Every structure is written in structure tokens, then in C-alpha cells.
Amino acid sequence: MKKRTPVSAIMTKDVITLSSVDDLMTAEKLFKENSIRHIPVVSGKEIVGMLSYTDLLRISFADAVDDNETDVDTVVYNMFTIDQVMAKNLVKVTSSTKIKEVAEILAKKEFHALPVVDDNNLVGIVTTTDLINYLLEQF
User: What separation in angstroms does the CA of 65 have from each of 24, 69, 70, 83?
Assistant: First the structure.
């Protein structure tokens, strides 16, 4: 196993993002269409928060909706903004942070994705799934 590999080797570089002016229906659509569970919220290229699919489930009944159904009761989503639901106090890493350090952070914290930020600009996202896939490649 390569101990000095930077997170840039495994992070997602083409990151799907939201703006705090987007609505939660847009967020849910992005989660489902792209089969992802975390979306950074940006202002320009600067990250201001992170929205997870779990955040949506906490405030909605989306988990009770059949996956084949496209209409969700929008009443709950209209009661909140992305800014109110997203995580704001983020732990961030840089693209040169070593994978081992990223794994240590994710193992100790209660979240499953880290924004990768260089010079205050979002350049990627790394998730626990990225880490697991990296480890599987090593065997």
C-alpha cells in the first residue's frame, strides 16, 4: 500500500454542487439522478456548506416514497432552505492531504464526505466509498 498517496488520486474532481439559493427539490433531484449522497454548497468556487441526502431524510418523508415515484410532497421542502439544512462547520482537506490522514478523519467523525479545497476553491470531494474502493484496489 502506498502510504504517501495524496487524496487527489482518489477524490471526485467533477463535483456536482448547489448554491444556497437552490431549493431542496433541486437537491433531491440531483441526489437521485446522480446516485450520490453528498453535495457541496458553494458561493462561486468557495464552499459554504455540505448537504447530505441524510439531511433531507431528516426533514422529509422522502424515505417513505417509493423509488419509482417521481412526485414527493413538496410542502416540507418549501418550509426549509438549503442554508438551514446544510452542515456549515466543515472539516476540509487539501488535494495534497495524504489518504491515510483522510481515513483517520473520516474514521473519527460522524460524517462520510470531506470537501477538498485548495486556495479557498473547491477542487473535489472524497467520501468513505472512495476510500473503500481505494483499499479494495490494493488487494
Answer: 16, 7, 9, 24
Q: Phi and psi of 67, rounded to 5°? A: -60, -30
Domain ranges of the chain: 7-138
CATH pick for 7-138 out of 3.40.50.12780, 3.30.70.980, 2.70.50.60, 3.10.580.10: 3.10.580.10
Which has the closest alpha carbon to 60: 73, 48, 47?
73
Give per-residue burial for 36-52: e unless 16+ CB within 10 Å, then b: bbbbbbbeeeebbbbbb
Q: Is the Cα dihedral 51, 52, 55, 56 positive or negative?
A: positive
Claim: this prediction has a pTM higher than 0.70:
yes
pLDDT for 70-114, tens place per residue? Answer: 444 567 788 899 999 999 999 999 999 999 999 999 999 988 999
Strands 46-52 and 113-118: unpaired
